[in-house]
Amino acid sequence: MAFGINRSQLKKWKSEVEAGQIAFITHFWLDPRFPHEKSVTKVGCKDLQKLIKWGSKYGLETEWIHERDAYPHFDLIGDKQRTIMEQEGRMNELQKFL
To answer: Which domain of life is it from (predicted)?
Structure first.
């Protein structure tokens, strides 16, 4: 279940993904498989080769890409999420979800 973002934030993420940009969106997220995590960052890009190349910098495997709804993306959670967001200079986006 996702919550903590508004429609305009989601539209912005989708339009950036569609434009072939590496796009980030972080939201609250509850999943019983990950009981200690409460947020996820979706990093998407319509250009799969660009997304694969970006992910390889962080050790993300190609098979981890979710390719549904025309918005291919990686889901970042836990320590990997925090590490990548810090390296990308985006911790301010994650702070409200920690």
So the answer is: Bacteria
